[in-house]
Amino acid sequence: xxATNETTKQILQYLFDQRVFAWRQNTVGIPTERGWRTxxxxxxxxxxAVLPKNGRLLAVEVKTGRDTLRPEQLGFGRNIEAMGGVYLxxxxxPDFLDKWNSIPL
Length: 105
Hints:
alpha+beta; Trna Endonuclease, Chain: A, domain 1; two-stranded antiparallel ribbon; 3 helices; 6 strands; globular
């Protein structure tokens, strides 16, 4: 399992244990009989969640190793924050926990 997949799995399990409604958002294109169909929205974070009590959107982008944010991902994050949501870019599970603990719930 890749470092990104392992980190994503750990974050999802943690959120589940905290009773946070969360899911992995797959934005990979879909193969069809005619070729390849791209995802409906590019730049969407790896994990989306609804924060308890206030219902704000939490978007978590997992970037391991030398992986960097693409312009579409930066734009997605800016839009989430502009609407009052929380956008986190994390490199591993401990990084997620540090950032998670700083979110006012």
